[in-house]
């Protein structure tokens, strides 16, 4: 790992474990991109960049050298207005209304470690020896704009992070109209684009399509990263699959509206840009002021999509997630939402805890409905005071009743919201996002608190802190159930109204930092109607996310498979729920629901008190098995084996870091008539070792099957062909000797 600048060729070489990222200064001014991909030694870095004269429609900046055109130069941080007609990474408007700018190299600095980003989540290092960073200072002297491009390369992860700090060094104000996190011109366009799309209850389905001329864009304009399109995009070589081929990943550490675009120009260069969505964004920079972009995490793998995912998994699990729970096993929980919805009281919750204890569960989560007059979703958000009708002796009493059953206690909040029917709204009608004279559009009968305001943030931090400090609450579910409309703030001046959405995000991050650092022993799980804000920004504050409101085992195969493209297993909440399933009315066996949910942070979300003795016995077995397998599932390496998007079955596996233990989960979603024999080629094992393979649910009934790692990886594991739909099996593999 290291960053080397060669003054002769004016090249920068960022070397990761097995990747190289190379840039070159052209005419000592323009920062050109040379290579991002497999690691090279760099024997002639200065000779790699090819520049060719095109036509007058790609003009040159220098009348004496028509070879160089910014329109065809592969660039690191493209501008608008000075002869590059492709999509820019930034745009600035001056007081005189002009929007032309050009950034020229000024200086650079290479240093050990990785800087934090002011007010924003980002990957981090614990010791300076884990990373090296590079700041490249670019300036537009004519207008007094400085952009510091920051790059970090890691010792232990094949990832490169990029971010930009914009500063007004002049003496006139300017407005950033576009302030993205990076630009990158890859020198060919033979790519497929892969991204994660969906909607509520159908999040992060995988889509793959060839790039074509022009722009391929994914974005959110919803004020949150959204269910619809995740802030992630991959470019894949045409032949790339799970295990082979080149895969580039681009992931944004941000939870608000974003844009990612791959634009193929007429000469086959692919320009990738990513950052805060410029749509309805601007940021006023007074002289001396700075603006920090979010961080983008760029990953290259020559080992296909799976290789790319495992780089993200390890980096995000160990150097994005933080806090005491980063490396701790996550508790098995029972959540009362699908068990009772709003219809509960203290006795009912205690009954759930009593059965929970009998079954071996570790945490009871009280979901929506414990505060204000919240008997349905029409009121009370903002009134974070216990409903003494439901919990007559208050929260401390309920918590101790649950704790007496040896379950920890967790509580749901939706702290970014306010119901029009609430005391908070009646007292402070201007505390929500709104535009004077316009309708305040409600969604789920609620409005969004204006987190760009310090007074709103202070109020929320105080009320949440009071509750968390009042009794031993071990877990918080932080929900957020709508997207932004009428984005405006009562406190911002007209010229800063378009800053509201990003100021909201900065405010949210400030609140999360204050609350999570005040309660370091509390496990926080984020949620936004399930996975509407499943993004790296939220994971920085809360190491797990409720993956989806869809708890159907079949739907979960796709949702969890898609989510695993970027996000580690330890970040995915997954619960067994009742049948017929509340979202799709499908009935699947308890075994399959258990196996799907055990492939994440395991829990239950149904009324345990209605279980038969036989069901209780089955759940006890699931819970005991998960406790045994939990380290492997939550912290092992994850391999996708068979895609639920492609056939009638699905499979994945977890392998311990030392390769001595593995778990394979196989799901037959639909039975096929007279189906061909199926073999699952396993991954990540040691070819030269033997593994004992058995059905994890019934180890005592198993015959001893021993296979070589090479047999299992190159020939495959025989999986059953069952009659009937919705069947599944977990295979536990233990290395011999
Ligand atoms: C949406 C969440 O995703 C659900 O799990 C639940 O907490 C409800 N909100 C409660 O209103």
TrEMBL record:
GO MF assignments: alpha-galactosidase activity
Keywords attached to this entry: Glycosidase, Hydrolase
Reactions listed under catalytic activity: Hydrolysis of terminal, non-reducing alpha-D-galactose residues in alpha-D-galactosides, including galactose oligosaccharides, galactomannans and galactolipids
Domain Glycosyl hydrolase family 36 C-terminal, residue spans: 650-733
Keyword Cytoplasm appears in the UniProt entry: no
Catalytic site positions: 479 (nucleophile), 549 (proton donor)
Residues that bind substrate: 200, 367-368, 444, 477-481, 527, 549
Domain Glycosyl hydrolase family 36 N-terminal: 30-286
PROSITE patterns named among the record's database cross-references: ALPHA_GALACTOSIDASE
Enzyme class: hydrolase
One Pfam family named in its UniProt record: Glyco_hydro_36C
InterPro entries reported for this sequence: Aldolase_TIM, Alpga-gal_N_sf, Alpha-glycosidase_related, GH, Glyco_hydro_27/36_CS, Glyco_hydro_36, Glyco_hydro_36_C, Glyco_hydro_36_N
Domain of life: Bacteria
Family: Belongs to the glycosyl hydrolase 36 family.
Protein name: Alpha-galactosidase
Organism encoding this protein: Paenibacillus silvestris
């Amino acid at each position: 790992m290291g960053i080397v600048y060669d003054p002769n060729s004016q090249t920068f070489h960022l070397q990761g474990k097995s990747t190289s990222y190379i840039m070159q200064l052209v005419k000592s001014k323009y920062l050109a991109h040379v290579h991002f991909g497999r690691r090279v030694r760099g024997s002639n870095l200065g000779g790699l960049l090819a520049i060719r004269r095109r036509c007058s429609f790609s003009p040159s900046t220098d009348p004496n050298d028509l070879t160089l055109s910014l329109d065809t130069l592969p660039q690191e941080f493209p501008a608008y207005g000075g002869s590059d007609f492709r999509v820019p990474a930034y745009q600035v408007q001056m007081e005189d209304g002009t929007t032309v700018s050009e950034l020229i190299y000024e200086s650079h600095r290479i240093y050990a470690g990785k800087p934090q980003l002011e007010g924003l989540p980002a990957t981090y290092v614990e010791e300076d020896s884990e990373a090296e960073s590079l700041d490249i200072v670019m300036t537009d002297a004519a207008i007094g704009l400085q952009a510091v491009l920051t790059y970090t390369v890691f010792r232990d992860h094949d990832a490169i992070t990029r971010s930009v700090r914009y500063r007004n060094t002049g003496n006139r104000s300017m407005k950033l109209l576009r302030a993205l996190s990076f630009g990158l011109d890859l020198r060919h366009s033979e790519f497929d684009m892969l991204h994660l799309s969906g909607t509520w209850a159908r999040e992060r389905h995988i889509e793959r399509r060839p790039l074509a001329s022009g722009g391929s864009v994914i974005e959110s304009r919803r004020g949150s990263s959204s269910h619809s399109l995740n802030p992630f995009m991959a470019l894949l070589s045409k032949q790339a699959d799970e295990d082979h081929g080149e895969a580039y990943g681009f992931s944004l550490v941000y939870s608000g509206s974003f844009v990612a675009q791959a634009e193929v120009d007429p000469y086959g260069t692919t320009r990738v840009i990513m950052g805060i969505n410029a749509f309805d964004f601007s940021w006023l920079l007074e002289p001396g002021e700075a603006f920090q972009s979010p961080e983008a995490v760029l990953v290259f793998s020559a080992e296909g999509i799976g290789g790319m995912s495992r780089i993200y998994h390890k980096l995000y699990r160990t150097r994005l997630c933080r806090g005491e729970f980063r490396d701790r096993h996550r508790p098995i929980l029972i959540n009362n939402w699908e068990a009772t919805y709003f219809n509960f009281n203290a006795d009912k919750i205690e009954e759930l805890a009593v059965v929970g204890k009998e079954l071996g569960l570790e945490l009871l989560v009280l979901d929506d409905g414990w505060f204000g007059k919240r008997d349905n979703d029409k009121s009370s958000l903002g009134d974070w005071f216990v409903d003494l009708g439901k919990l007559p002796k208050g929260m401390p009493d309920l918590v101790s009743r649950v704790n007496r059953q040896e379950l920890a206690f967790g509580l749901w909040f939706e702290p970014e919201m306010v119901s029009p029917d609430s005391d908070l709204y009646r007292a402070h009608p201007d505390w929500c996002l709104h535009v004077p004279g316009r309708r305040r559009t409600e969604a789920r009968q609620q409005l969004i608190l204006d987190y760009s305001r310090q007074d709103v943030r202070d109020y929320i931090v105080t009320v949440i802190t009071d509750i968390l400090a009042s009794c031993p609450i071990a877990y918080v579910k932080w929900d957020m159930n709508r997207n932004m409309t009428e984005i405006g703030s009562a406190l911002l001046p007209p010229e800063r109204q378009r800053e509201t959405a990003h100021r909201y995000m900065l405010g949210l991050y400030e609140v999360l930092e204050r609350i999570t650092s005040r309660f370091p022993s509390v496990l926080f799980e984020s949620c936004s109607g399930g996975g509407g804000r499943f993004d790296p920004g939220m994971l920085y504050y809360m190491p797990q996310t409720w993956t989806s409101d869809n708890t159907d085992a079949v739907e979960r195969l796709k949702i969890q498979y898609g989510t695993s493209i970027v996000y580690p297993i330890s970040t995915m909440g997954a619960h067994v729920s009742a049948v017929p399933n509340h979202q799709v009315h499908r009935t699947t066996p308890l075994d399959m629901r258990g196996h799907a949910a055990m492939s994440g942070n395991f829990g239950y979300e149904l009324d345990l008190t209605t279980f038969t003795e036989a069901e209780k016995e089955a759940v006890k077995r699931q819970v005991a098995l998960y406790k045994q397998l939990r380290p492997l599932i939550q912290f092992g390496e994850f391999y996708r084996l068979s895609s639920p998007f492609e056939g009638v079955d699905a499979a994945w596996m977890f392998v311990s870091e030392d390769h001595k233990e593995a778990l394979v989960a196989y799901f037959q979603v639909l039975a096929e008539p007279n189906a061909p024999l199926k073999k699952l080629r396993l991954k990540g094992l040691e070819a030269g070792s033997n593994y004992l393979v058995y059905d994890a649910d019934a180890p005592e009934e198993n015959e001893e099957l021993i296979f070589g790692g090479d047999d299992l990886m190159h020939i495959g594991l025989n999986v059953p062909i069952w009659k009937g739909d919705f069947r599944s099996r977990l295979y536990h593999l233990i290395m011999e000797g």
